[in-house]
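Can anyone check this?
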Amino acid sequence: MDKKTLRAKQLETLKEIPTLEYEQKCHKIEQRLFRSEEWSDSQVIAVTVSKAPEVNTWNVIKRGWEQGKTICVPKCTPQTRQLSFYALDSFTSLEKVYYGLYEPKPTICESIHKEQIDAVIVPGLAYTSSGYRLGFGGGYYDRFLSGYEGYTLSLAFTEQIVETLPVEPFDIPVAKLISEDGWLHCE
């Protein structure tokens, strides 16, 4: 099965999770994240602003603020397929861009360099137990993670953990998966 077909299939699977179950799963994943060494050892954390049916990251962002962490979110540059991260200290510093995604307004948010980021919470649609993932297309995170030396982890529903995925030479796996059922070290 090609990646485009896998993405469509995975989105359908996620959309079928009932609302109350979705909320409970997100809560369990958040609580596991907040108890992880990656969270406790990190001061600067990169995370995307989620869009349903992904694992909700809005509460993750709020908890980071409550704990005095620097939360940075990505801005995509489609022409070069690059990510730039910006510190987010208010949801009003976001703007809705293509595909209905929320990204930081670079004119009012402070730029955060890759070397400053302690942990990156990498989004995706599906993951293998070895940490490889099926992203949303474009290879933005694989480019960003090339040469990145901090923590890498993903938040995933058990429905997103699959046996196999097509893996390209440029794909970079995450080191840890956090699901509602537990942690999975991928290294």
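Reply from J.R.: I decoded it. The longest strand covers residues 70-77.
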